[in-house]
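A note on notation is needed here, since sequence and fold are reported together in a single record. The reader may check this reading against the record printed directly beneath this paragraph.
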Amino acid sequence: MTRQQSFLAALLAACLMHPARLPAQENPGGDELSGLRSAWQQAIEQPDLEASIALFTPDAVLLLPDGNRYADRAAIRTLYKRVMALYHSHIKLTSKRQDCSGKLCVDEGTYAETLTENTSGKKIEIYGSYVLAARRDPNGAWKIAEFVWTGGPGAPH
């Protein structure tokens, strides 16, 4: 594990273990990642595979509630391509807390997603929490370095 990956892991752990919680819909420190979240959401909902993958760093990691780990853009592209072939997604991300320092930013929040099966039209409601760690690229744009998801089908948390 590189020093940068170790730092990201430690930053994520600190954010997850921090006992203070903000009231829903409040993020007093500003929202540096709103553009990144909006672009990702739009790319997923369109669906636009290449636009969604372009928002990740080359060494990005995606962790799903079932424990599966996708460890670079190619692996994430394979997953997204498979999911987009089966489902249409409508997702809402709600940021609860953000902590940014220099080239790194961690965003924690909740999500509500409706997946519609492309063949049958059957809908699946999914709710949970997420942690998004972003890193600035050399051009100053935020890119997703790690995306961690919890939750699953059922009632909102």
Observations:
- The domain at 3-14+35-153 is CATH 3.10.450.50 (Nuclear Transport Factor 2; Chain: A,).
- Confidence is low (pLDDT under 50) at residues 3-29.
- The beta strands are 56-63, 69-70, 87-101, 104-117, 123-136, 142-149, 152-153.
- The chain has one domain: 3-14+35-153.
